[in-house]
Known about the structure:
single chain, 7-stranded mixed beta sheet, 4-stranded antiparallel beta sheet, 0% helix
Amino acid sequence: QVQLVESGGGLVQSGGSLRLSCAASGRIASINTMEWYRQAPGKERVLVAHITRDGSKNLADSVKGRFTISRDNIKKLVYLQMNSLRPEDTAVYFCAAEGIDFQDDSPVAYRSWGQGTQVTVSS
């Protein structure tokens, strides 16, 4: 599987920008999809964005036009560029890797999680 570490969170005013980074290590070749989730206090964790092995991307409706997901395969980093931030974007943001690895020649699906990074948007 893979190990993930997020960084780049912080406090920003409404309308501001932040870029989150996710550093991946381990069995990178097994990854099918890299994902960003977020979880606000008292709320469920929800998918924000993902990028697949072939580079296709998808964003949640709540962040379309404001957030961008991208990756740097050489540096083994996935980014979430967050623009026009709103107070409702305040949450802990988690990076995740979904993939299929092989154990004893059998495929095993997995999802690995980072530790999360706090994003707080003030009004």
